[in-house]
């Protein structure tokens, strides 16, 4: 089967690698333009582009695919490349550009999307983060036949995955990337034989996973401890939950709710106890025990090691960064 692949980050690279390894013919990859990254802010190719170049696959990086948009010449060049690829299907995974109707109509079997949620829950940009933040017990991957809407197309395959109590966005991302890679290979095998049966998404249960903003990372200690614990896991590795102690900004990477603690009489944000097992902080409801922290310019450290270089004592106040 001839495929065009459209994707950008590591989540997409896992699928591209699986498709390449399955023997699929991939004459063209679409990915986002190179972006500045790292301390030197040098232009860096996406994970998908790096894989494509390593394996001699042609790459197109239009800033838009809208023929009547801001970059019509780039869109027209991409259209020529897509038409020349004569693809049976296009596979899309975390690409980052909206596909106009002319793209959706181009491949013989249409465009198949790998989406990291159990649609219609968590349509949109950040389904993994939002599932953890909301306290969902499970998530999964949906292979979807794309249409003009935002993650509204018919479902072709769905597989569920439990969210563990220690899962972060980073760990769950890797599990879902591997699952999605396996699923898209199987889905295309079924598509080739005509065995895929599209199922319309339910009208009930629609939620939107809005893009993560850095401002969300500043923890509000008036919220319940259970909510803050989920936020810390949801914002790992990006953008990293933040707080201030003694006027210094810190990142918080791991914590747990102290189920044995009495309801704190102290104001939210007050440090209640400090030990090598954790820093107990009063919240709007309950107590949160911080177990992995990071100073600006430093490394993530377990609390015992962190406290060797950072003085903390009961009565201090943890604020919003």
TrEMBL record:
Gene3D superfamilies: Formyl transferase, C-terminal domain (3.10.25.10), Formyl transferase, N-terminal domain (3.40.50.170). Its EC number is 2.1.2.9. It is an enzyme of class 2 (transferase). (6S)-5,6,7,8-tetrahydrofolate binds at residues 117-120. The keyword Transferase applies. The keyword GTP-binding does not apply. It catalyses: L-methionyl-tRNA(fMet) + (6R)-10-formyltetrahydrofolate = N-formyl-L-methionyl-tRNA(fMet) + (6S)-5,6,7,8-tetrahydrofolate + H(+). Residues 211-310 form the Formyl transferase C-terminal domain. Keywords: Protein biosynthesis, Transferase. HAMAP family: Formyl_trans (MF_00182). Belongs to the Fmt family. Attaches a formyl group to the free amino group of methionyl-tRNA(fMet). The formyl group appears to play a dual role in the initiator identity of N-formylmethionyl-tRNA by promoting its recognition by IF2 and preventing the misappropriation of this tRNA by the elongation apparatus. This is Methionyl-tRNA formyltransferase. It comes from Caenimonas terrae.
